[in-house]
Amino acid sequence: MSDRLLVLVRHGESEWNRKNLFTGWRDVDLTEKGIAEARAAGRKLKAQGLRFDLAFTSALIRARHSLDLILEEMEQSGSIPVLRDLALNERDYGELSGLNKDDARAKWGAEQVHVWRRSYDVAPPGGESLKDTAARVLPYYIQDILPRLLRGDNVIVAAHGNSLRALVMVLERLSPREIVAREIATGVPLIYRLNADSTVAEKRDLAA
């Protein structure tokens, strides 16, 4: 795999992932397990012989910290530009943010919470749907990330489950139903090689 490589990595396990809390835009850091996951991702990418020209991440510490650890393992710390932007932040869970998922089910009912979590265009109170998240992620991808890829740069994006779902939906041409069923594991690099027309030529998942 050569030029026009896009690597997507969800941050390692966060403190609130471990506690089963809705996190959204709340700024919580990685657990020890999350740190290990991020470092392992960096080692896997290094073992593939990859080098990056540019990195993108969200404004949230769990994604930024994960990216720092990945680049450290790849011996690329401080050697490439790192661009941070709110557009890559996790989906905003609104009134669910900070709640234990079981407590949310007790308050609103399991069926309603399932709809908020797993529908494409239904937002929780005061928050964003996946469709809303895509509406900010995709313009940023088209305007800021894709041009660098099409110039032949290798790019890594360290972000979140739902902001990455928005990108995967476009890259893999998935329907709203297909993308809400897609799980993106913490700390597992997804490698895409793009054609000159921005379509995907090849995809690899480094879960193994």
Under CATH, the homologous superfamily reads Phosphoglycerate mutase-like
The major β-sheet equals: 6 strands, mixed
Count of separate structural domains: 1
Instruction: Output the radius of gyration.
Output: 17 Å
CATH class: Alpha Beta
Instruction: Note poorly predicted spans.
Output: none
Oligomer: single chain
Structural class: alpha/beta
Distance between the termini: 18 Å
* DSSP strand count: 6
**Total number of helical segments?**
8
Mean pLDDT: 95
CATH architecture: 3-Layer(aba) Sandwich
- Name the beta content range: 5-15%
Order of the strands making up the biggest sheet: 3-2-4-1-5-6
Query: Tell me, what's the shape?
Result: globular
Helix content: 40-55%
CATH topology: Rossmann fold
H/E order of the elements? EHHEHEHHHEHHEE
